[in-house]
Amino acid sequence: MKSANRPPVTIYEIAHHVGVSTAAVSSVLANRHVERRIAPATVERIRRAAHVLGYVPNMAGRRLRSQRTATRQIDLAILTSFEAPLPLVGQALHALQRAVDVQSTADTRYAVAIEMFHAGLIREKTGLLDADRYHGVIITNTLPEDDRFLAEATLPYPAVILGRRIAGRCCVLEAPEFVGRRSAEILIESGCRAPAVIHGRLLTHTTADRVAAFCRTIRERTRREPAVIVSDGLQPHRAAAALEQHCSRGHPVDGLFAVTDSLAIGAYRVFRSLGRRIPTDVAVVGVGDHELAEFFDPALTTVAGANEAMVAEAVPLLFRLLRGEPVPPEVLVVPPVFLRESTRRPRPRVSNSKASAARRRRAAR
Amino acid sequence: MKSANRPPVTIYEIAHHVGVSTAAVSSVLANRHVERRIAPATVERIRRAAHVLGYVPNMAGRRLRSQRTATRQIDLAILTSFEAPLPLVGQALHALQRAVDVQSTADTRYAVAIEMFHAGLIREKTGLLDADRYHGVIITNTLPEDDRFLAEATLPYPAVILGRRIAGRCCVLEAPEFVGRRSAEILIESGCRAPAVIHGRLLTHTTADRVAAFCRTIRERTRREPAVIVSDGLQPHRAAAALEQHCSRGHPVDGLFAVTDSLAIGAYRVFRSLGRRIPTDVAVVGVGDHELAEFFDPALTTVAGANEAMVAEAVPLLFRLLRGEPVPPEVLVVPPVFLRESTRRPRPRVSNSKASAARRRRAAR
DNA sequence: GAAAGAAGCTAAATGGATTTAGCAATGGCG
DNA sequence: CGCCATTGCTAAATCCATTTAGCTTCTTTC
Question: Which residues in chain A touch residue B82, judged by CB atoms under 8 angstroms apart?
Fold first, then answer.
C-alpha cells in the first residue's frame, strides 16, 4: 500500500483525514492538546490517523516556525569514512563539540553531526552537494578517489580538509615527509639493518606520504630497499596476520614502522609469540593517535599523533570560514616525537634490557 | 554595534539594505546569479551586504523550500557525556551510522548527530526539550543525576536509554549483577585472596552496578571486604596513579577487577613496574569494550564488552519507536566472557608461565 | 521604424508546522 | 430568560528561503 515514492504525510493530510483543522492536529502532535482544549475523543482520532498514515514530522518546518527568534542554529558536520579508525573519529568529534560548547551563546546554538561515507566513495554520498544541510564541515580520512572528487566539486558550504592538500580549499595536514623520514631515522639510529613498514591496504594521502617518505629515507641512507608489509585492515589481528606471513616467509625484520597505532599492537603480539624481544631484537616505531602508546610493553616510540593537533587547528579555521574571515590555504602541523623504550638502542654489548631503567622522553619539533 | 540578542539577519534585510528584491539576494547567495542574470555589480553589492550584516543562512527555511518533495529527512542523535570514553562514543556512532546507511532509501534520508553534555549536567543541555531537532535519540553514559532528570522530564521525541533502567522509557542495559559477579568469581577461582576493584570517580549506573555486585560476591564467597580503588579519571595514567598509591600504602592486591578497559591498561603498567607478574602474582579482569584486550601482554580476561552489543540492540529499538511500533520496556544484554592469560590459574607448583602454551578461550553466555 | 531578443530584475507562490485571535455552541446561574 | 463563562474548535499570519512566471528597458536586426 505504501508506495515507495509518495510525498511525505503532512499535518494537512491528517487534518483532512480526520475532518479537523491543522491547528488541532498540530496541537495534538505537539502534546499541547490540554491547554488548547481539544476534546479527548478528537485527540484520539488524530493520534490514530497520524499513526495509520505514517506521519513523520518535518523538522525543517517545525523549526522554522517554533524557533525562538533571536536564536540561530549553526549546523556543523564532520565527514569521515566508515573505514577510518574509530578513535580518530571520536577525537575529532570531541574537539569540535568542545569548541562549539564554548562558542555557544544565548543567540547562537551549534549542532554537530557526523556523516560517514565509504572510503573512496564520497561521491556517492547523497546530499553532499546540497546547500540545505550544513553551515560548515570538516572532511577527513579521504582516499585519493575522494580527494579527486573534492577537487572538482564545488561544495556549497565552507569546508576544512584534514590530511590532504586540495587546491582552493582550506587544508590542515601533517608536515609532508616528516613522519616517514623521522621514523626511518629513528630505526636507523637504533641500528636496524632490515627495516620494514606496515600499512593498511587503503592509503589516505597522509599514510601514503608516511610510507613513501619512510622508504625514500631508508633507501637514501642505507642503500637498501625496506620491506613493505600490507595489512588487509587496520585492526590488530589483521596486522598480526600480515606480519606473521611476512616473517614466516623468512624475511628478516629488525625494525618496524607502523603507520597506525593499531597496527603496532598487532605487531607486538607477533614479535612476542616469535620470541623476539623489543627493542633488543626488533625496534618498533608507531603513531601516537591515542593515549595508549605509552602503555605498551615496552612503551612505544611514536612519531606523529598529529590527529589531535590537526583537529585543534581545523576547528578555529572552520569558525573563521563561517565568519567570512580570510584563512591560510593550508596549515602544516609538525607532529611531536616521543622516544620510548620500543626503540631504545641497547648499550653495546651489555644486553641488559631492564625496561624501567633510564626512562627518557623527548619531544622534538 | 552587534547587539547580543538581535534577531538573525535574513535575506529580507539584505534585500532592503541593497535595494533589490529577495529573489535577487537568494539567487546570489545560492551562487545562481549567472543563470538568473544578475548584473555583476549587483552581485558584488549583495555579497558585500551579506558579509557586512553578518548573514547566516537559516537552514530550516532553506530546507523547507528546496527539499525535493518525496524525500523526508529523519534526524537522529546520540546523546553522550563529554567524560565518556571516546571509543564507546565512536562505536555507538558507527553502529548507528551503519544501520542508517542500510535503511536509507530514495525517499528517506537519515542524519546522525552527536550531542554531548557534561556528566551529571544533562539538565543544562540547551535544546534538550525542544521538539524541533530530532526524530529520535539514543542516550548513553548518564550519571545518576542525569537519570533522575530523565525520569521526570518528558522528552518530546522517542528515546532509547543505554545502560540505565528508567521507568516508562525503552532501555537497553547489561544484565544486572552479571559482570560484577562473574568478575569476582573469576578472581576467586584464580585463587585470589586479596581482590580489589578499580573504577573512576564518576559512576554511571552500569559501572556502579558492576562495582556493587563485585563487592557483594567477594564478600559472600570469601567473607572478606574487597579493596575499592577510586581513580580520578578513566585515562590509564590516572588509574596508574591511584593504584600506585594504593599499593604504596602497603595494601596487598593479588587480583584486580577494572570496570573500564583503559583502567586495566594503567594497572598493567603499575604491576609491571612493581615487578609483579600477571597472572602469577596478580590476576586481572577487565572489560572488553574495545578490541584491544586480546593484545594486552598477557592477554586480558574480559567480562562485559557489552557496549557494542547494547548499541546493536538499541538501534533497531529506536527504529521501531520511530515507526510507532510497540517495544519492550527493557532489553537485557548478557555480555560475553573471555577467559585469557591475565587470570589463568597457574598449575600448582609448576610456575611455568609460558604465555603461548595452552591457549584456551571460552565464550560464556 | 517596428519586431524580436536579451538583460536585469520583481511579484508572488510555495514548503510544513505553530500559534494567536476569535467564533460558535453549550452549560450554569441568577 | 438573558448573560457570562467555558468548551472546542478554525482562520489566518508567520517563520525564511527558493523559484517560476512575467514585466520593463535596452539593444539588435531587417
Answer: 94, 97-98, 101
Predicted local distance difference test score (pLDDT) of residue B109: 87
Task: Verify whether the Cβ–Cβ distance B64 to A58 is below 8 Å.
Answer: yes
The residue in chain B having the minimum alpha-carbon distance to the alpha carbon of residue A266 is B295
Torsion of CA B47, B50, B56, B60, to 10 degrees: -80
- B233 & B355 share domain: yes
Q: Which domain holds residue A182?
A: 178-305+337-364
pLDDT at residue A89, as a whole number: 84
- Co-location of B268 and B219 in the same domain: yes
| B115 with A113: Cβ contact below 8 A | no
pLDDT at residue B81 tops 80:
yes
| B61 closest CB neighbour out of A30, A58, A64 | A64
A100 sits in which H/E element = helix A86-103
Pick the last residue of a domain from A113, A142, A174: A174
In a 13 Å sphere around the CA of B12, the CA atoms on its Cβ side amount to: 4
Each residue of A227-278: pLDDT tens digit? 999 999 888 899 999 999 999 998 889 999 999 888 998 999 999 889 999 8
Minimal C-alpha gap between A365 and chain B (Å): 24
Would you list the DSSP string of A232-281?
A: SSSSHHHHHHHHHHHHHTT---SEEEESSHHHHHHHHHHHHHTT--TTTT
Same-domain status, B164 and B193:
no
Looking at every residue in chain B, the average pLDDT score rounds to 87
pLDDT digits (tens, 9 = 90+) for A105-116: 877 889 999 999
Are A61 and A114 contained in the same domain?
no
**pLDDT cut 70: percent of chain A above it:** 91
CATH number of the domain at A167, please: 3.40.50.2300
The per-residue pLDDT for B332 is 94
Q: How far is the first Cα of chain B from the last one, in angstroms, to the nearest whole number? A: 65
Q: Do A233 and A356 fall into the same domain? A: yes
Q: Do both B99 and B60 map to the same domain?
A: no
Flag if B156 and A30 touch (Cβ within 8 Å). Answer: yes
Comparing A15-24, A134-143, B51-60, B70-79, which segment has the lowest mean pLDDT? B70-79
The pLDDT of residue A101: 87
Domain-embedded: residue B311? no
pLDDT on residue A216? 97
CA angle B218, B224, B225 (to 5 degrees): 75
Residue A311 lies in a domain: no
Whether residue A330 is contained in a domain is answered as: no
- pLDDT of A357 reads 30
Pair (A164, A264) in one structural domain: no
B72, B109, B131 ranked by CB distance to A30: nearest: B131
Same domain, B282 and B185: yes
Coil/strand/helix, residue B331: strand
Tally of domains within chain B: 3
- Final residue before a domain boundary, out of A174, A207, A231: A174
Distance CA(A83)–CA(A235), nearest Å, equals: 11
Kindly provide the residue ranges of all beta strands, DSSP E only, lying in B71-225, ordered along the sequence. Answer: 72-81, 108-117, 136-139, 159-162, 170-174, 195-200
Nearest to A168 by CA among A178, A179, A176, A160: A160
User: Nearest 5°: CA angle at A113, between A325 and A172?
Assistant: 45
**Rounded distance, CA A80 to CA A140, Å?**
5
Which of B14, B132, B237, B268 has the highest number of chain A CBs within 10 A, making it the mutation to test binding with A? B132
Local structure of residue B105 (DSSP, 8 states): B
Whether A331 is covered by a domain: the verdict is no
